[in-house]
Amino acid sequence: MAATQLTASPVTVSARSLASLEGLRASSVKFSSLKPGTLRQNQFRRFVVRAASVVAPKYTTIKPLGDRLLVKIKEAEEKTLGGILLPSTAQSKPQGGEVVAVGEGRTIGKNKIDITVPTGAQIIYSKYAGTEVEFNDVKHLILKEDDIVGILETDDIKDLKPLNDRVFIKVAEAEEKTAGGLLLTETTKEKPSIGTVIAVGPGSLDEEGSVTPLPISTGSTVLYSKYAGNDFKGKDGSNYIALRASDVMAILS
């Protein structure tokens, strides 16, 4: 079978000048319609697609404002626990990092609310939180304090200390058999939505900025919304989930 060669005309750059290519956005590069015989490989060697906003080298610091924090993103795991090297497509997106700078806080009602997370803290944040930036060739994330799930004081997720109105739950084991005794595979096991509360945050803020304690205590068995929160796996293989207290539907006894 004859091979079909797809080629493209030269790239058109709409940046104001070539000197500004450092902060080039995806919208400023255009590819015109495909034409035969015009594409050369060396035309694309200098163009890199970036998911993060790139901060130019002339800027030496980033100071977050309000209730925002600057977090240095933890690098993705390149190997499994068994030592198998993972391709980039199979590496899980990190949800943790180190706080390197914090804003001045925010005002609710008449009260000034300071950020409670200190610099240097290792944190876990919501999966799709914040804005990613590349600063000094290192990936960072600018996010709000409310996007932080909790502080990690050890290297095991089971020791997560939840913040604000977050609840940290150890998920109940999925049923391995049907009522009729049929053995279920991993793909057919129903995701459980019941678990035991391991830790709770201090509470949510009311309209005056005062903390309202959560009506959930550690050790409680709870029923929670099936598609809520962020899932984690501990070093012992146990499954955990961190979610907002509003996603807990009932306490079971």
Automatic annotation (TrEMBL):
Superkingdom of the source species: Eukaryota
Any Pfam family hit: Cpn10
Keyword list, A-Z: Chaperone
Classification via InterPro entries: Chaperonin_GroES (IPR020818), Chaperonin_GroES_sf (IPR037124), Chaprnonin_Cpn10_CS (IPR018369), Cpn20 (IPR017416), GroES-like_sf (IPR011032)
Stored NCBIfam families: PRK00364.2-2 (NF001531)
HAMAP family: CH10 (MF_00580)
Similarity comment: Belongs to the GroES chaperonin family.
The protein's name: 20 kDa chaperonin, chloroplastic
